[in-house]
Amino acid sequence: MQQIMQQMGLGVENAVSQSGAATQGEILKKAMVDKTVAEGLEAYRQQEQLRQRAQDLSESLRQPANTCQAMALQGGLGNAAQSSKAKVSVVQGQVMKKVRGNTNTIDALETAHKSTNDNLCTAEEAARGVCRANASGKYANLAGADQNALFLFQAKDGSSTYEGERDGPQAKAAEGYVARIVAGATPPENLRSQDYTRNPQARAYVELMRRYSGVLSMAAYSLNQIKEARNPQAGLGNDTKMATISAPGFAPNKADMSMLEAVQRFIATKFSPDSMRDSAKATSTNQILRDIAQVDAFQLWVDHQALQQDSRTEALMALQLAMMTEKALRPQLEAQRRASVAAGNSQ
Question: Can you give the residue range of the structural domain that contains 104?
């Protein structure tokens, strides 16, 4: 009996020992699994953090969709503005030469008359037998353009770029319009060279002619500025990346355009349906701020152009005030001068 009990005790002890070892093994397995899972979760968290940081960095460096266009426009407009100013000085000299260079009024009128008759005859003039309408050729769509202010401000199709190439038919017609307004139908005739020094009256006429030219040059300068802002410049559409924009009202693939149309096209890209959708979906603060900075920089350029225009407007107003003052006060001054001379002679 004792032997049997001893054998059973040893069996129980062995069973308990084996059960404990098995339990300990399972615990160790679970611990290893938990460790593997924890390490996997930590690695995933680190990878997710890296991915999020990369995404945040990408978002912080993202530029507005038309950044390249804005940069190209800035450079292109700078060159275009300088080119326009240089061209204004040339056409200004041409107009003022017509004002100052008339030595034979008949010849001057004949030249202007022939130029319009050959190229810009209107249907009404043709019906009266004044000239023959130009139904074909490069001036076919410009009848009366040197008599109509519309062709100074736009093309016939409404574009802000003159029809044809730079200094092409419409630009020449606009120059004719400016000359017609400034130089007038009958420009003052200069004295012959031998008459200048003969008497004080001749010298006074020369000075009055110089003043006349100075007054008209102010109007000519403003009109030429308007013209050159619309004169097409070769390749400006490509230089400013405005040639291929998709916006309502603008022809695609237009390589040559005026400075004014390039500005209008850039504004259209900011106010196009695609741009409005992109703005509505934008969530990156940096991208939104960069877009605002671009618009502010463009506004600065526009303000500078407006400042120059305001200077011309102010000069024209000052000129008008001077002429009005002279018209009102000069007769009074002359009358008082004559009265003073008469009073002095009677004493």
Answer: 66-279+295-322
Average pLDDT, whole number, for the chain?
A: 82
139, 168 Cβ separation under 8 angstroms? no
Q: What is the dihedral of CA 268, 271, 275, 277, to 10 degrees?
A: -150
Strand partners, 257: 233
Rounded to two decimals, the pTM is 0.73
Please count the structural domains in the chain.
1
pLDDT digits (tens, 9 = 90+) for 277-296: 776 676 677 777 777 777 88
The answer to whether residue 8 sits within a structural domain is: no
Token representation of residue 210: 């110089």
Q: Could you report the per-residue pLDDT of 39-57, keeping only the tens digit for each? A: 888 888 888 888 877 766 6
In sequence order, the β-bridge partners of residue 233 are: 257
| 3-state helix/strand/coil string of the chain | CHHHHHHHHHHHHHHHHHHHHHHHHHHHHHHHHHHHHHHHHHHHHHHHHHHHHHHHHHHHHCCCCCHHHHHHHHHHHHHHHHHHHHHHHHHHHHHHHHHHCCCCHHHHHHHHHHHHHHHCCCHHHHHCCCCCCCCCCCCCCCCCCCCCCHHHHCCCCCCCCCCCCCCCHHHHHHHHHHHHHHCCCCCCCCCCHHHCCCCHHHHHHHHHHHHHHHHHHHHHHHHHHHHHHHCCECCHHHHCCCCCCCCCCCCCCCCCECHHHHHHHHHHHHCCHHHHHHHHHCCCHHHHHHHHHHHHHHHHHHHHHHHHHHHHHHHHHHHHHHHHHHHHHHHHHHHHHHHHHHHHHHC
Sign of CA dihedral 319, 321, 322, 323: positive
Rg (CA), the chain: 42
Q: Is residue 31 part of a domain?
A: no
13 pLDDT more than 70: no
In a domain, 329, yes or no: no
Q: How far apart are CA 116 and CA 173, in angstroms?
A: 9
Helices 285-346 and 67-100: angle between axes, nearest 10 degrees: 20
Confidence of residue 11 (pLDDT cuts 50, 70, 90): low
Residue 33 lies in a domain: no
